[in-house]
Amino acid sequence: MSDVKEYYDEVPYFSAAFSDCSPVRIHAIARFLGLNPPAPEEARVLEFGCSYGGNILPFAAHNERADVVGIDISSTQVSVGNKIAKDMGIGNFSLMELDILKLDESEAKRLGKFDYIIAHGVYSWVDDSVKEALLRSVKLLLSANGVAYISYNIYPGWKSLDVLRDFMLFASDSQTSGAKKLEISKRELDFLQDYLKFNAQSATDKVYRDSTQLLATQLNFLQNIIKKGNDYYVLHDFLEICNDPIYFYKFAKKLEQNGLYYLLDCSLDDIFRSVLGIYRFDAHIARNYPSRIQKEQMNDFLLNRSFRKSLVIHKERLNGSDDLDIELGMKELSRLNFALNLSDPANEVQKALADAYPDSLNLDDLLQCTGQDAQTTFMQLMEVFATQNVKISANALKSVRYQDGKSRLRPRVAGYLSYFASTDEPVILLADGLNLKVGLTGLEARIALKFNGENSFEDIVKLADILIKNCDFDPFEGKERNLKDYVKNIQTKLENAYFFEKLANVFA
């Protein structure tokens, strides 16, 4: 693994936060399915391939009683991540440099059991020996009622992306530096895109022209990522030393061999996209592919999926059965709380959620708010559940509004924000306790710290004016200069991220 270590030390991976692998979401889904994993706020959480820790640091900042640990092979990322957390004053967070191939039973005993294990962006990007070590480590370290999250690239969707990866590797083959490989690859991708556009317009052979269309579509997807400045993603996904997608059914078999069980995907496709909705196709699948794993694999083929985010538990929890016997209905849905921000709600449930946002509502709340019958409310809420931007939690989500003398930034959150206020080039993503991005610039983070419970809104507007005048750039360039609206927008972002606490709680 020494070459992998050098690669990540040379070009570190920007440490983003991903809401799908938030312990809060994982816990909520598990509760929905009738499982009883430990409460996140007091859980032990482990992430493999943690980079700087940006994916678990927001959770640690919001859950002081939780114990949060990250493991990575890059000494550079581990040391920087630990320093960031120390400077923030977040003491329930630690990163360690560890080669997973050396994680044996004695090391596992030293680390102890973890209630939530996250391996985002690891499995597909390591060789077979490390893949096996990862699954073995999950088995060793996962607590009896714990849940693990493993993401990975899958076929068939990655087949066409493989062509782009192979092209980039070929074009940059003479280079040893990751940065140089990236530079040449971006240049040659531009060349390839130019040719494919020309081909689409001028090729007379329709079969040949059409055969390149999928490649052109995938290239457009990649170019859009490049335009966003996500070089780290391009380098570590397309130019990575190892990128080895797998068919889902083979991954499920690997889990079984290691005493683990595939629960479902954190995207909830298993529930909301488990059928195609057309009888003759669904009937064919049901007749010829009886097991759940087979059905899921068939759907991957038909939908051309390229990525999975799988939740995993101990196989022993099946008590000798082939699958969990789970019923999903009103009782199960009532275990969850939902928060959804909508500007144009389409039904009564959506309207109630929009009115309550950022506070969450559960099924009982919605039955009271809407005045609808239970079945209609249930169906409308299930539709909300299937959306990508809904916040879900087993616990109610309640936002505290800012008022001087009555509320303030939570001290640990203020410590967390201080990092983003002090750098213009953060290596981690600013996120809330649900791992959802909080879109604040460095300047806005500095203004956010003024919401300390002592300053009034008018005070903060004046302080923001001073900070802006001393700033290297004008946030109002090309726009009307409205300081009050600018500060109010920052306040709203903080409230929507549940960053405030009531001052009364300090003395309770």
Fold blueprint:
Blueprint: H1 2-10, H2 23-32, E1 44-48, H3 57-62, E2 67-72, H4 75-88, E3 93-97, H5 105-111, E4 114-119, H6 128-141, E5 142-155, H7 158-171, H8 178-202, H9 206-211, H10 213-227, H11 231-238, E6 246-247, H12 248-257, E7 260-265, H13 269-272, H14 279-288, H15 292-303, E8 307-314, H16 330-333, E9 337-339, H17 348-356, H18 363-370, H19 374-385, E10 391-393, E11 407-409, H20 411-421, H21 442-448, H22 457-469, H23 483-496, E12 500-502, H24 504-507
Parallel strand pairs: 1-2, 1-4, 2-3, 4-5, 5-6
Antiparallel strand pairs: 5-8, 7-8, 9-10, 11-12
Helix pairs in contact: 4-20, 7-8, 7-10, 8-10, 18-19, 20-21, 21-23, 22-23
Features:
508 residues; alpha/beta; Rossmann fold; 4 domains; two-stranded antiparallel ribbon; 24 helices
Please provide a written account of the structure:
By secondary structure, this protein is an alpha/beta fold. The protein has four domains: 229 residues, Rossmann fold, CATH 3.40.50; 81 residues, no CATH class; 57 residues, no CATH class; 101 residues, no CATH class. Helix content is 48%, strand content 13%. Strands 1, 2, 3, 4, 5, 6, 7 and 8 form an eight-stranded mixed β-sheet that branches. A two-stranded antiparallel ribbon has the order 9-10. Strand 4, helix 6 and strand 5 form a beta-alpha-beta unit. Helix 18 packs across helix 19. The protein starts with a helix and ends with a helix. The mean pLDDT is 92.
Domains, number: 4
In whole angstroms, the N-to-C terminal distance is: 51 Å
> What is the rounded Rg?
24 Å
Q: Biggest β-sheet, characterized? A: 8 strands, mixed
Average per-residue pLDDT, rounded, comes to 92
Name the CATH homologous superfamily of the largest domain: Vaccinia Virus protein VP39
CATH T-level topology of the largest domain? Rossmann fold
Helix count?
Answer: 24
